[in-house]
Amino acid sequence: IVKDFADGFCFDPLHTDKKCPCEKWGTFGAHDPSMIEADGYYYVFSTGTFGRDLYQIRRSKDLVHWEFVGEAFPQGFSALAPVVATLEEVYGGKVKTENLWAPDVVPAAGGGYWLYGCYTGVFGDNYSVIYLAKAEKIEGPYRYEQTLVVTGGNWGLVPNAIDAQIFYDGAGRMFMTYGSFYGGIRILELDPATGLRKDGYT
């Protein structure tokens, strides 16, 4: 199952070949995807992988053929300097992970888009941060707005601030679920006017 590209051979995007250019990936490498419909396309945002670590973005007209668009933070990790600083403080050292995990993107009140992202200090532990970023256009670039949840320590007793997912109830209230099997799944009410925590904590 090999395709012949102008610059040589490359495995089909559904198979592993790290030398395959991202423009040819299609669905390859899309981990923890979150989908949103905007501007005539279906967009998928996913965990960073294979050196494209700042949230990968893909789009499709038909949910079958996917185009790699780019990354949510083309500015690099400098765009998330407050997140990195908070994480290093709670972790007590340099961050050991190099990619962002499991984003969720929803329309922002008043226009634009909110991205709920997470960054963790080290794989397999709960030193993590969930933050809010915003962009005027669905394809970004996204800019940091505020940190929402910080976790770390008391392994198994405290939730892990990863895998944020946004939903609304029938009354229009906005909520965010997050967590993992380490410490359980939690739910937090947000302010639909700002996208931030309704309880005011940061």
Describe this structure in words.
- The protein is mainly β.
- It is 5% helix and 41% strand.
- The strands form 4 sheets. The protein has a 4-stranded antiparallel beta sheet, with no helix packed on it. The chain has a 4-stranded antiparallel beta sheet with strand order 7-8-9-10, with helices on one face.
- The N and C termini lie far apart (50 Å).
- The N terminus is likely disordered.
Features:
single chain; 202 residues; four-stranded antiparallel beta sheet; 13 strands; globular; disordered N terminus
User: How would a crystallographer describe the biggest sheet?
Assistant: 4 strands, antiparallel
Q: Enumerate the strands of the largest sheet in spatial order, edge to edge or round the barrel.
A: 3-4-5-6
* Mean of all residue-level pLDDT scores: 87
Q: State the end-to-end distance.
A: 50 Å
User: Ranges with pLDDT <50 over ≥5 residues?
Assistant: 1-11
- The number of helical segments is 1
Q: What is the gyration radius calculated from CA atoms?
A: 17 Å
What class would the helix/strand composition place it in? Answer: mainly beta
Helix content: under 10%
Spell the H/E element sequence. EEEEEEHEEEEEEE
Proportion in β-strands? 35-45%
In short:
This protein is mainly beta. It has one helix spanning 81-91, and strands at 2-5, 8-11, 31-38, 41-47, 56-60, 67-71, 101-107, 113-120, 128-135, 143-151, 165-168, 174-180, 184-190.
Protein topology:
Blueprint: E1 2-5, E2 8-11, E3 31-38, E4 41-47, E5 56-60, E6 67-71, H1 81-91, E7 101-107, E8 113-120, E9 128-135, E10 143-151, E11 165-168, E12 174-180, E13 184-190
Antiparallel strand pairs: 1-2, 3-4, 4-5, 5-6, 7-8, 8-9, 9-10, 11-12, 12-13
